[in-house]
Amino acid sequence: AKHQGRNTWCTFAPSMLSDAADRLDIRNGLAQALQRDELMLYYQPQIDLATGRLIGVEALIRWQRPGHGLVSPARFIPVAEECGLIVPIGAWVLRTACRQMAQWRAAGAPPMVVAVNLSALQFGRGDLEQDVHAALEQAGLPAGWLELELTESILLQNPEQVLAIVQRLRKLGVSLSVDDFGTGYSSLAYLKQFAVDKLKIDQSFVRAIDAHPDDTAIVRAIVQMAHSLGLKTIAEGVENAAVLELLRKLGCDEVQGYHYARPLPAADTLSFILAAQQG
Ligand code: C2E
Ligand code: CA
Ligand code: CA
Ligand code: CA
Protein backbone atom coordinates (compact mmCIF):
# COMPACT_ATOMS: atom_id res chain seq x y z
CA ALA A 1 0.00 0.00 0.00
CA LYS A 2 2.87 2.31 0.89
CA HIS A 3 4.49 1.66 -2.42
CA GLN A 4 1.30 2.29 -4.26
CA GLY A 5 0.74 5.43 -2.23
CA ARG A 6 4.12 6.78 -3.16
CA ASN A 7 3.56 6.02 -6.80
CA THR A 8 0.26 7.80 -6.70
CA TRP A 9 1.90 10.77 -5.06
CA CYS A 10 4.68 10.87 -7.64
CA THR A 11 2.24 10.58 -10.49
CA PHE A 12 -0.29 13.15 -9.40
CA ALA A 13 1.40 15.70 -7.17
CA PRO A 14 3.43 17.63 -9.75
CA SER A 15 0.51 18.24 -12.06
CA MET A 16 -1.74 19.11 -9.14
CA LEU A 17 0.80 21.61 -7.86
CA SER A 18 1.35 23.27 -11.20
CA ASP A 19 -2.39 23.35 -11.70
CA ALA A 20 -2.91 25.11 -8.40
CA ALA A 21 -0.01 27.48 -9.06
CA ASP A 22 -1.47 28.17 -12.49
CA ARG A 23 -4.85 29.01 -11.06
CA LEU A 24 -3.34 31.20 -8.36
CA ASP A 25 -1.36 33.07 -10.98
CA ILE A 26 -4.46 33.60 -13.13
CA ARG A 27 -6.44 34.72 -10.08
CA ASN A 28 -3.81 37.28 -9.07
CA GLY A 29 -3.64 38.67 -12.58
CA LEU A 30 -7.39 38.68 -13.01
CA ALA A 31 -7.94 40.75 -9.88
CA GLN A 32 -6.20 43.65 -11.62
CA ALA A 33 -7.36 42.95 -15.16
CA LEU A 34 -10.60 44.87 -14.70
CA GLN A 35 -8.98 48.03 -13.31
CA ARG A 36 -6.16 47.89 -15.84
CA ASP A 37 -8.59 47.55 -18.73
CA GLU A 38 -7.08 44.28 -19.95
CA LEU A 39 -10.40 42.58 -20.71
CA MET A 40 -12.14 42.93 -24.05
CA LEU A 41 -14.99 41.45 -26.01
CA TYR A 42 -14.94 39.74 -29.37
CA TYR A 43 -18.19 39.20 -31.27
CA GLN A 44 -19.26 36.19 -33.34
CA PRO A 45 -22.02 36.66 -35.96
CA GLN A 46 -25.23 34.59 -35.86
CA ILE A 47 -27.08 34.01 -39.13
CA ASP A 48 -30.69 33.14 -40.04
CA LEU A 49 -30.43 29.97 -42.09
CA ALA A 50 -33.46 30.60 -44.31
CA THR A 51 -32.71 34.21 -45.25
CA GLY A 52 -28.95 34.41 -44.75
CA ARG A 53 -29.58 37.53 -42.65
CA LEU A 54 -27.41 38.55 -39.71
CA ILE A 55 -29.59 38.24 -36.61
CA GLY A 56 -27.09 38.92 -33.86
CA VAL A 57 -23.62 38.57 -32.42
CA GLU A 58 -22.44 36.65 -29.36
CA ALA A 59 -20.07 38.55 -27.06
CA LEU A 60 -17.07 36.42 -26.10
CA ILE A 61 -14.60 37.67 -23.52
CA ARG A 62 -10.83 37.80 -24.04
CA TRP A 63 -8.03 38.78 -21.68
CA GLN A 64 -5.15 40.70 -23.16
CA ARG A 65 -2.70 39.80 -20.40
CA PRO A 66 0.65 41.61 -20.49
CA GLY A 67 3.38 39.07 -21.19
CA HIS A 68 0.87 36.29 -21.93
CA GLY A 69 -0.88 37.41 -25.11
CA LEU A 70 -4.60 36.77 -25.57
CA VAL A 71 -5.83 34.41 -22.83
CA SER A 72 -8.80 32.16 -23.66
CA PRO A 73 -11.93 32.31 -21.47
CA ALA A 74 -11.73 28.53 -21.14
CA ARG A 75 -8.66 29.18 -18.97
CA PHE A 76 -9.74 32.13 -16.84
CA ILE A 77 -13.56 31.98 -16.56
CA PRO A 78 -13.48 28.83 -14.37
CA VAL A 79 -10.99 30.59 -12.07
CA ALA A 80 -13.14 33.74 -12.01
CA GLU A 81 -16.11 31.56 -11.06
CA GLU A 82 -14.10 29.87 -8.32
CA CYS A 83 -13.06 33.10 -6.63
CA GLY A 84 -16.20 35.16 -7.25
CA LEU A 85 -14.55 37.64 -9.63
CA ILE A 86 -17.06 36.51 -12.26
CA VAL A 87 -19.68 38.78 -10.64
CA PRO A 88 -17.90 42.11 -11.35
CA ILE A 89 -16.50 40.71 -14.61
CA GLY A 90 -19.99 39.62 -15.67
CA ALA A 91 -21.36 43.09 -14.92
CA TRP A 92 -18.52 44.57 -17.00
CA VAL A 93 -19.40 42.24 -19.91
CA LEU A 94 -23.05 43.35 -19.76
CA ARG A 95 -22.14 47.05 -19.71
CA THR A 96 -19.56 46.74 -22.47
CA ALA A 97 -21.71 44.61 -24.78
CA CYS A 98 -24.72 46.93 -24.42
CA ARG A 99 -22.64 50.06 -24.95
CA GLN A 100 -21.01 48.50 -28.00
CA MET A 101 -24.32 47.43 -29.53
CA ALA A 102 -25.78 50.90 -28.91
CA GLN A 103 -22.84 52.39 -30.83
CA TRP A 104 -23.36 49.98 -33.74
CA ARG A 105 -27.06 50.78 -33.71
CA ALA A 106 -26.23 54.48 -33.95
CA ALA A 107 -23.83 53.66 -36.82
CA GLY A 108 -26.69 52.09 -38.79
CA ALA A 109 -26.90 48.47 -37.65
CA PRO A 110 -30.35 46.98 -38.33
CA PRO A 111 -32.30 45.44 -35.41
CA MET A 112 -30.40 42.47 -34.00
CA VAL A 113 -29.27 41.15 -30.63
CA VAL A 114 -26.02 41.08 -28.72
CA ALA A 115 -25.95 37.78 -26.81
CA VAL A 116 -24.15 37.73 -23.45
CA ASN A 117 -23.03 34.61 -21.56
CA LEU A 118 -24.03 34.35 -17.90
CA SER A 119 -22.45 32.30 -15.13
CA ALA A 120 -24.34 30.53 -12.36
CA LEU A 121 -22.73 32.72 -9.70
CA GLN A 122 -24.33 35.83 -11.23
CA PHE A 123 -27.68 34.36 -10.19
CA GLY A 124 -26.57 33.59 -6.68
CA ARG A 125 -24.56 36.64 -5.71
CA GLY A 126 -24.86 40.26 -6.69
CA ASP A 127 -27.97 41.64 -8.32
CA LEU A 128 -28.24 40.41 -11.88
CA GLU A 129 -31.50 42.18 -12.66
CA GLN A 130 -29.98 45.47 -11.53
CA ASP A 131 -26.79 44.83 -13.54
CA VAL A 132 -28.82 44.12 -16.69
CA HIS A 133 -31.11 47.09 -16.13
CA ALA A 134 -28.17 49.44 -15.50
CA ALA A 135 -26.28 48.20 -18.56
CA LEU A 136 -29.29 48.87 -20.82
CA GLU A 137 -30.00 52.26 -19.25
CA GLN A 138 -26.43 53.52 -19.39
CA ALA A 139 -26.11 52.46 -23.02
CA GLY A 140 -29.55 53.67 -24.06
CA LEU A 141 -30.12 50.27 -25.68
CA PRO A 142 -33.67 48.89 -26.07
CA ALA A 143 -34.01 45.65 -24.07
CA GLY A 144 -35.05 43.77 -27.21
CA TRP A 145 -31.48 44.14 -28.48
CA LEU A 146 -30.04 42.10 -25.60
CA GLU A 147 -30.13 38.33 -25.30
CA LEU A 148 -28.89 36.40 -22.28
CA GLU A 149 -27.37 32.94 -22.65
CA LEU A 150 -27.98 30.60 -19.72
CA THR A 151 -26.73 27.04 -19.33
CA GLU A 152 -28.86 24.10 -18.30
CA SER A 153 -26.86 23.83 -15.08
CA ILE A 154 -27.92 27.39 -14.12
CA LEU A 155 -31.58 26.47 -14.59
CA LEU A 156 -31.18 23.37 -12.46
CA GLN A 157 -28.99 24.57 -9.61
CA ASN A 158 -31.62 26.40 -7.57
CA PRO A 159 -34.82 26.34 -9.63
CA GLU A 160 -37.04 28.56 -7.46
CA GLN A 161 -34.48 31.30 -6.99
CA VAL A 162 -33.36 31.22 -10.62
CA LEU A 163 -36.94 31.15 -11.90
CA ALA A 164 -37.78 34.29 -9.90
CA ILE A 165 -34.77 36.12 -11.35
CA VAL A 166 -35.48 34.86 -14.88
CA GLN A 167 -39.05 36.13 -14.66
CA ARG A 168 -37.82 39.58 -13.63
CA LEU A 169 -35.31 39.58 -16.49
CA ARG A 170 -38.07 38.69 -18.95
CA LYS A 171 -40.12 41.62 -17.66
CA LEU A 172 -37.26 43.92 -18.64
CA GLY A 173 -37.80 42.72 -22.22
CA VAL A 174 -34.55 40.84 -22.90
CA SER A 175 -34.63 37.47 -24.65
CA LEU A 176 -33.21 34.25 -23.24
CA SER A 177 -31.47 31.25 -24.74
CA VAL A 178 -30.17 27.99 -23.30
CA ASP A 179 -26.49 27.50 -24.17
CA ASP A 180 -24.76 24.16 -24.78
CA PHE A 181 -28.17 22.49 -25.05
CA GLY A 182 -28.10 18.71 -25.03
CA THR A 183 -25.14 18.37 -22.66
CA GLY A 184 -27.20 18.77 -19.47
CA TYR A 185 -30.38 17.27 -18.19
CA SER A 186 -33.11 19.87 -18.51
CA SER A 187 -36.54 18.43 -19.07
CA LEU A 188 -39.32 19.74 -21.26
CA ALA A 189 -41.10 20.90 -18.12
CA TYR A 190 -38.14 23.13 -17.21
CA LEU A 191 -37.94 24.71 -20.63
CA LYS A 192 -41.64 25.53 -20.52
CA GLN A 193 -41.47 26.90 -17.02
CA PHE A 194 -38.50 29.16 -17.70
CA ALA A 195 -40.07 30.41 -20.93
CA VAL A 196 -36.80 30.70 -22.82
CA ASP A 197 -36.89 31.79 -26.47
CA LYS A 198 -34.18 29.68 -28.05
CA LEU A 199 -32.04 26.57 -27.67
CA LYS A 200 -28.39 26.70 -28.69
CA ILE A 201 -27.53 23.19 -29.83
CA ASP A 202 -24.14 22.28 -28.39
CA GLN A 203 -21.31 22.20 -30.88
CA SER A 204 -20.34 18.66 -29.91
CA PHE A 205 -23.45 17.49 -31.84
CA VAL A 206 -22.94 19.90 -34.71
CA ARG A 207 -19.30 19.96 -35.70
CA ALA A 208 -19.09 16.52 -37.35
CA ILE A 209 -22.77 15.94 -37.93
CA ASP A 210 -22.15 15.05 -41.59
CA ALA A 211 -20.06 12.06 -40.47
CA HIS A 212 -22.17 10.86 -37.53
CA PRO A 213 -25.73 9.54 -38.01
CA ASP A 214 -26.28 9.59 -34.22
CA ASP A 215 -25.62 13.32 -34.11
CA THR A 216 -28.08 13.82 -36.94
CA ALA A 217 -30.74 11.98 -34.94
CA ILE A 218 -30.01 14.05 -31.83
CA VAL A 219 -30.15 17.38 -33.66
CA ARG A 220 -33.34 16.37 -35.46
CA ALA A 221 -34.95 15.47 -32.12
CA ILE A 222 -33.86 18.75 -30.49
CA VAL A 223 -35.17 20.83 -33.39
CA GLN A 224 -38.53 19.03 -33.44
CA MET A 225 -38.92 19.28 -29.69
CA ALA A 226 -37.98 22.97 -29.72
CA HIS A 227 -40.43 23.78 -32.50
CA SER A 228 -43.26 21.91 -30.81
CA LEU A 229 -42.65 24.11 -27.76
CA GLY A 230 -42.51 27.25 -29.90
CA LEU A 231 -38.75 27.72 -29.42
CA LYS A 232 -36.14 28.58 -32.01
CA THR A 233 -32.90 26.66 -32.46
CA ILE A 234 -29.41 27.85 -33.26
CA ALA A 235 -26.57 25.46 -34.08
CA GLU A 236 -23.10 26.40 -32.88
CA GLY A 237 -19.80 25.21 -34.32
CA VAL A 238 -20.83 25.22 -37.98
CA GLU A 239 -17.52 24.89 -39.77
CA ASN A 240 -18.39 23.94 -43.34
CA ALA A 241 -21.05 23.96 -46.07
CA ALA A 242 -21.87 20.24 -45.74
CA VAL A 243 -22.87 20.72 -42.11
CA LEU A 244 -24.83 23.83 -43.05
CA GLU A 245 -26.85 21.95 -45.68
CA LEU A 246 -27.65 19.14 -43.28
CA LEU A 247 -28.83 21.64 -40.65
CA ARG A 248 -31.02 23.29 -43.25
CA LYS A 249 -32.65 19.93 -44.02
CA LEU A 250 -33.21 19.31 -40.31
CA GLY A 251 -35.06 22.61 -40.02
CA CYS A 252 -32.60 24.38 -37.74
CA ASP A 253 -33.39 28.12 -37.63
CA GLU A 254 -30.05 29.82 -37.10
CA VAL A 255 -26.33 29.08 -37.28
CA GLN A 256 -23.09 30.34 -35.79
CA GLY A 257 -19.58 29.12 -36.56
CA TYR A 258 -16.28 29.47 -38.35
CA HIS A 259 -18.01 28.79 -41.69
CA TYR A 260 -19.46 32.31 -41.49
CA ALA A 261 -17.08 34.05 -39.17
CA ARG A 262 -14.78 33.55 -36.21
CA PRO A 263 -15.27 35.77 -33.19
CA LEU A 264 -14.17 39.23 -34.38
CA PRO A 265 -12.70 42.27 -32.61
CA ALA A 266 -15.22 45.11 -32.26
CA ALA A 267 -13.97 47.15 -35.25
CA ASP A 268 -14.18 44.16 -37.61
CA THR A 269 -17.64 43.36 -36.27
CA LEU A 270 -19.01 46.73 -37.38
CA SER A 271 -17.58 46.15 -40.87
CA PHE A 272 -19.24 42.72 -40.91
CA ILE A 273 -22.58 44.18 -39.78
CA LEU A 274 -22.55 46.94 -42.39
CA ALA A 275 -21.42 44.58 -45.18
CA ALA A 276 -24.13 42.03 -44.24
CA GLN A 277 -26.70 44.80 -44.48
CA GLN A 278 -25.73 45.55 -48.06
CA GLY A 279 -26.42 41.87 -48.83
P1 C2E B 1 -19.62 29.13 -25.48
O1 C2E B 1 -20.52 30.13 -24.87
O2 C2E B 1 -20.19 27.79 -25.79
O3 C2E B 1 -19.03 29.85 -26.77
C1 C2E B 1 -18.75 29.20 -27.99
C2 C2E B 1 -17.28 28.90 -28.14
O4 C2E B 1 -17.08 28.16 -29.35
C3 C2E B 1 -16.41 30.15 -28.28
O5 C2E B 1 -15.15 29.86 -27.66
C4 C2E B 1 -16.26 30.26 -29.80
O6 C2E B 1 -15.11 30.99 -30.20
C5 C2E B 1 -16.17 28.81 -30.21
N1 C2E B 1 -16.60 28.59 -31.58
C6 C2E B 1 -17.52 29.30 -32.29
N2 C2E B 1 -17.69 28.78 -33.53
C7 C2E B 1 -16.87 27.70 -33.61
C8 C2E B 1 -16.60 26.75 -34.67
O7 C2E B 1 -17.15 26.78 -35.77
N3 C2E B 1 -15.69 25.76 -34.38
C9 C2E B 1 -15.07 25.69 -33.16
N4 C2E B 1 -14.19 24.71 -32.98
N5 C2E B 1 -15.30 26.59 -32.15
C10 C2E B 1 -16.20 27.57 -32.38
P2 C2E B 1 -14.47 30.92 -26.68
O8 C2E B 1 -14.67 32.31 -27.19
O9 C2E B 1 -13.09 30.43 -26.44
O10 C2E B 1 -15.32 30.79 -25.35
C11 C2E B 1 -15.29 29.61 -24.59
C12 C2E B 1 -16.31 29.63 -23.49
O11 C2E B 1 -15.98 30.62 -22.49
C13 C2E B 1 -17.71 30.00 -23.94
O12 C2E B 1 -18.33 28.89 -24.53
C14 C2E B 1 -18.34 30.41 -22.64
O13 C2E B 1 -18.77 29.29 -21.91
C15 C2E B 1 -17.19 31.07 -21.91
N6 C2E B 1 -17.30 32.54 -22.05
C16 C2E B 1 -16.87 33.34 -23.04
N7 C2E B 1 -17.17 34.63 -22.79
C17 C2E B 1 -17.81 34.64 -21.61
C18 C2E B 1 -18.41 35.68 -20.80
O14 C2E B 1 -18.42 36.88 -21.13
N8 C2E B 1 -18.97 35.28 -19.61
C19 C2E B 1 -19.01 33.97 -19.23
N9 C2E B 1 -19.58 33.68 -18.05
N10 C2E B 1 -18.48 32.97 -19.96
C20 C2E B 1 -17.90 33.31 -21.13
CA1 CA C 1 -22.46 30.96 -25.34
CA1 CA D 1 -22.23 27.07 -26.48
CA1 CA E 1 -19.60 26.14 -23.42
TrEMBL record:
Parent sequence residues shown: 444 to 722 of 728
Keyword entries, A-Z: Membrane, Transmembrane, Transmembrane helix
Residue ranges annotated for the EAL domain, each copy included: 23-277
Domain of life of the source: Bacteria
UniProt keyword Transmembrane, yes or no: yes
Signal peptide residue numbers: none
Protein name: EAL domain-containing protein
